[in-house]
């Protein structure tokens, strides 16, 4: 039996027993399709913790050779219909810029601002919009990876491989321990002295009354 103490959509205080949900998943497409106009890849995800925590990490790596890289438009849409642009007309006139590119929020350079200077793969890169946009949303369902070639009259690309990885880390809250109040030694001594003084005074009063 798994026992969860849940508060504000976070695992709170304790997690007992095996984790009943996956915390990460990876989907790979390796069909080698020709990108002549548009091409859609769908990945069905199930079993991830809902919603994605604030520590979740999503990456997308693509192997898409193209003789004119800026022809490529690529978007990623979540099961909740949230869409972000991965690349939108980037790479200038250079070829094969995205033939192995890892898109990740942790990259030093963004695809939107990178100064492409030559043919050949550039990796890693931040996407046009951050993957962190998907945090706090339900990751389970159908993810859509959509490619478009905006100029197909003279050249085409090829979608050799695509890898979508979702790491939906658990987030924990530490249980605050209540500090026990310790009675000061001086307070205990004072109380002991006070009790003995009270008994002594009572004794004197009784003796005085008896002597009347």
Structural features, described:
The strands form 4 sheets. This protein has a 4-stranded antiparallel sheet, with no helix packed on it. Strands 5-10-7-8 form a 4-stranded antiparallel sheet, with no helix packed on it. Strands 1-2-13 form a 3-stranded mixed sheet, with no helix packed on it. Residues 1-20 and 171-175 have low confidence and may be disordered. It starts with a strand and ends with a helix. The chain has 1 helix and 13 strands; from the N terminus they run βββββββββββββα. The protein has one helix spanning 185-210, and strands at 3-7, 10-16, 24-29, 33-35, 38-45, 57-63, 72-77, 83-88, 99-104, 141-149, 157-159, 161-167, 172-173. It folds into 2 domains: 23-166, Galactose-binding domain-like (Jelly Rolls), CATH 2.60.120; 184-212. With 212 residues, the chain is mainly β.
| Percent range for β-strand residues | 35-45%
Name of the CATH class of the largest domain: Mainly Beta
Q: Which structural class do the helices and strands define?
A: mainly beta
Task: Determine the number of helices (DSSP H or I, runs of at least 4 residues).
Answer: 1
Give the radius of gyration: 33 Å
Helix proportion range: 10-25%
Number of strands: 13
Q: Which parts are unreliable, with pLDDT below 50 for 5 consecutive residues or more? A: 1-20, 171-175
What number of domains? 2
Give a quick set of tags describing it.
212 residues; Jelly Rolls; 4-stranded antiparallel beta sheet; 13 strands; elongated; disordered N terminus
């Amino acid at each position: 039996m798994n026992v969860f103490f849940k508060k504000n959509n976070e695992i709170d205080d304790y997690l007992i027993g095996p984790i009943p949900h996956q915390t990460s998943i990876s989907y790979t497409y390796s069909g080698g399709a020709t990108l002549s106009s548009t091409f859609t890849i769908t990945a069905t995800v199930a079993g991830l913790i809902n919603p994605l925590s604030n520590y979740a990490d999503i990456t997308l790596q693509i192997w898409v050779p193209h003789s004119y890289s800026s022809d490529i438009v690529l978007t990623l849409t979540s099961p909740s219909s949230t869409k972000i642009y991965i690349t939108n007309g980037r790479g200038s006139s250079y070829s094969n810029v995205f033939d192995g590119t890892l898109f990740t929020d942790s990259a030093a350079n963004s695809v939107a601002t990178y100064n492409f200077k030559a043919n050949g793969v550039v990796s890693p890169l931040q996407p046009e919009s951050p993957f962190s946009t998907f945090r706090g949303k339900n990751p389970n369902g159908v993810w859509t990876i959509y490619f478009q070639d905006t100029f197909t009259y003279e050249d085409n690309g090829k979608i050799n491989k695509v890898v979508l990885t979702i790491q939906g880390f658990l987030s924990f809250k530490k249980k605050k321990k209540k500090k026990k109040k310790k009675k000061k030694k001086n307070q205990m001594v004072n109380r002991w002295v006070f009790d003995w003084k009270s008994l002594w005074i009572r004794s004197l009063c009784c003796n005085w009354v008896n002597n009347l």
